[in-house]
Amino acid sequence: MGASPRGRLVRLVEAAYQLRPDVATWIDELTSNAAELVPEAEGTVSRLLELSPRRLRGYTIRLRDPELARIMREQEGADALSVDVVMHGPDLGLRRLRGDAPSADASAPVLSEMVRRFEGTGIADMHHLTALDAGHCFSLGFLVRDGVDVRGSARAWSRAAVHFAAAFRLQRAAASAFADLPVDGAVLHPDGRVADADGAAQGARELELLRERVRRVDAARARAHREGSARALEVWRGLIDGTWSMIDRHDHDGRRYVVAVPNPVSVPDPRGLSPRLAQVAALAGAGYSDKWIAYALGLERTTVATHLAAALDKLALPSRVALAKAFEPSGAQDP
């Protein structure tokens, strides 16, 4: 893909939003892109888990060493079903197989066995990123040698995880995302000019917001190779106004457009709250900070705080801690 090291996380996020005809193809191509963009890793592994009941839905390996690939394929799929995904939550960025799991974590024996399996292979650790959405966990892991770290700040990687979850959510609804003009969506030029809009995206406030965000994000993406991915991903937030994701589309003449596709975080049981209040309350109940929720949904932090207060009032709950129980079994999805 020829990406500058300074902009590679943005390129990887862009690759995630390149939707494919099915989820399996999307995972396979995203894994290949990750392997190319993170050359310091000896290999890349991706897993897609369904969380309840826990089942392995997809598993892809890109490794230089065929013997190591054989070892990984023999056991890693089963291990994925035994490791508690919470230990490397998406808000923490890349996590290491060694050292990042709590010592009392129930997954510790499985993790120790995974580390032991690497002995003699030249692999010292695995760094992995987790994205959660709608009862699924997508994990991208990088196998590294001793003394090698995958470059990029924890904050930038955690921002990327938000986009992976949003892209995965879009991929699962790929038929609607592939539409020329999605229902309640819009088609814009990279400079923010509106080519077409439908439904909820036709409102004056919504169109102005979409125009402004498309301009800012497109400019930030273009500068990423000079300024680095961290700056660009601060501008390119998980959603626009809790509703839209942006994907690139090219016409037959090669002209690029940006399509705003409705892609809200869904909450299976909103507890009688409006969709927006339910989104904020479910994420807060899952333990995420107002700052994280604001980034993931593309809202202002003050707006998140207002929505959270309204949700607590409507549910007659004393604090955000009580939201965890209110939303059991956990309906909170990471964006």
Which helices and strands appear, and what pairs or packs with what?
Layout: H1 8-16, H2 23-37, E1 43-51, E2 54-63, H3 66-82, E3 95-96, H4 108-117, E4 125-133, E5 136-144, H5 154-172, H6 174-177, E6 186-188, E7 194-197, H7 204-227, H8 229-235, E8 244-250, E9 256-262, H9 275-285, H10 290-297, H11 301-315, H12 321-326
Antiparallel strand pairs: 1-2, 1-5, 3-4, 4-5, 6-7, 6-9, 8-9
Account of the protein in words:
There is one protein chain. Helices cover 43% and strands 18% of the residues. With 335 residues, the chain is of the alpha+beta class. The protein folds into 3 domains: 5-171, Beta-Lactamase (2-Layer Sandwich), CATH 3.30.450; 179-262; 275-326, Arc Repressor Mutant, subunit A (Orthogonal Bundle). A 5-stranded antiparallel sheet has the order 2-1-5-4-3, sandwiched between helices. Strand 8 and strand 9 form a beta hairpin. Helix 1 (8-16) packs antiparallel against helix 2 (23-37) and helix 3 packs antiparallel against helix 4 (108-117). Residues 330-334 have low confidence and may be disordered.
Structural class: alpha+beta
* Strand count: 9
Helix content, binned percent:
40-55%
Shape: globular
Order of SSEs, N→C? HHEEHEHEEHHEEHHEEHHHH
- Distance linking N and C termini: 26 Å
The CATH C-level name of the largest domain is Alpha Beta
Reading side by side through the largest sheet, how are the strands ordered? 2-1-5-4-3
Which residue ranges are poorly predicted, with pLDDT under 50 across at least 5 consecutive positions? 330-334
